[in-house]
Each structure stands twice: as C-alpha cells, then as structure tokens.
What does this fold into?
Amino acid sequence: MRIIFVPQFPSELRYQEWWFTEFPKQFRKRGFEVLTLGEDYANMIVHRRSAIDMFSPINQAIELETEQIREYMMLDIRPDDILFVSDISFPGFFCNVLYHKECPKMYAFCHATSMNRFDYFKSLSYSKFPVETSHAFLFDVVFIGSRYHQDKVQEFSDIYWRNTMVTYLPFQPMEAKLSGVAKSIDIMSASRPTPQKVDKELEDYVTEELGVQVQRPMNSNWSQYVWNLNRSKVLLITAHEDTFGYQIADAVTNNCIPIARNSLAYPELLPREYLYDTKEELVMILDQILNRERPIPVPKLLCMEQMNKFYDVICNEMTGEVDHPF
It folds into this structure.
C-alpha cells in the first residue's frame, strides 16, 4: 500500500516541523510506501523562510500547498492508495481538489478548528469553519487530538463531523534525556505571549503572591527548548484556548511538572491535582511544588497509552484492521 502524505509547511519550533519527517518515518516502519507531496519544494523554500512570530510563513505555506496540488493532480492514483492530510484547514486549498480527484481511501488530521474566540483567523471564522466542515465531510475518517475538540465540532454538526475518531497526538521524538540537571528555573512559560496562549494578569498575580517571576526563555531550536524544560521545576500554562496541549506532553517527557487550567483538553491529559480552577488554587499548587521539602513527582499523562499507540491506531484504521462504528 502507498500513503500519499500531505504535510503542512515545516515551521520551526512548531509540531509541523517534526511531523513533516516523523509521519513518513513511522508509516514506513509499518510497511507502507510513502510519497510526501511537496517534499522537494519544501526543502528548497525552507531555507528562505519569512520572519513571523507565531505561525507558518503564510506566503511560503501557500506556495507549498500549491505545489502539493500540482503534484497530486499529475499523479496516477493506484487502487490501493491512501491519502493522509496532516491538517484539513491551513492554508486550506488542497482539500478542495479532492472534489475533483479522490483517492480510494482518504484520511485527515484535525488538531483544532477556527471555533475559538482567540483564533488567529477569528475575523474570518464566519466563513472558515464552514470550509473546514466541508473538508471534513470528504474523508473516511478525521482523526482528532482530544475529546474536547471532537465535542466542539460535533456540537456544530454531528452529520458533517460524524466520521471523527479521537486518537490524541504522538509524543514529540526529541527529548533531552539529561540526568542531574540543576533546576535553575522555578516557573517557566513556553507559550507565545498572545491572548490565546498567555493570561498576563494571572502570571502577574502569581509573581505578586509567591515572589517568583514567570520566566519565558528564548528558544532557537528544539534542543534548547527541551534543555529549558529539563532545568525548570514547573511549566505554567495559562492558555484560554489550545489545540491539544503539546506543551504538557513535552514537559512530562522532559522532567518538568506542567500546571494547567482545569478546562479545554487539559483534564484529558493531567490528573486533577495538576489542574487549577481559580487563581488562588493555582498559587496554592505552585507553593506546594516550590516550597515542599519532599518533591512532588512529574505526573504521568492520562492518555499515555493512547499516545504510545498513536501510529498503530491510525495505520490499523486506514488498512481496515478495525471496524469503526460510524
């Protein structure tokens, strides 16, 4: 069987950078032939990235997706081909060609949608989410990273989003694997300082109550990021919306205690004692971690088993080795 893989632009220090290479690697390990659309083009344009603080360089992401469309339309589709799209919505051109040229089997991943009030494309959400919905309807299965996000889309329409399956997300393949690293940072934030990702008032309240500054180290590569996680006691997450909570998985696998809101997808990832409802509860949890003589352990992810089986679950679904009850 051949998987035709449609990746996102491999933006630095975002999950799509390593998804670009990790998905094909994991598919090949399971016996598939893999054709990555736009691979050569991405490797060419990645050396002239546009500067952008938060997301993929938009012009180059559109260039890549246009090249992926060109390659797909020139492709001879085999009877056993499987199409796997790593994001159904951004930039959002590729899926439209599937109305004209389908694969025998088609699957996609949806980390989140534009259905949140802090979305980068919020001003276009009146049109963007219906487009995402029409894309979702094309696929045999749309894999989703959390029950929280599945509930959001199915609340809008359990007809057009009926074909969803929660798989959670795979572990990042990069770990520092360091021993004896001095915990020189009490509280770290790795989120970009935007209203969606950081509650600045809450961070200031923590500093005022505990006398501890929330530090936001600059990371220029993945090694530096995991190094900072290893030398931090706590990763504080104050986001009002998130795609899944990858930072929690990053923290847990790199010896750092994540603390997050008791909302969004976070209760699917962390035990209750690592979640807070109020600012007072947050300060109490942080005080226990920072000032307790007996160390509080790094938690295990509640979805640990599912994340370990992530690629097997997806591959089994695509080959029909499981009977999904849609």
Remarks:
- The chain has two domains: 2-168+305-318, 185-302.
- Residues 2-168+305-318 form a domain with the Rossmann fold fold (CATH 3.40.50.2000).
- DSSP finds eleven helices and eleven strands in the chain.
- Residues 58-73 form the longest helix (16 residues).
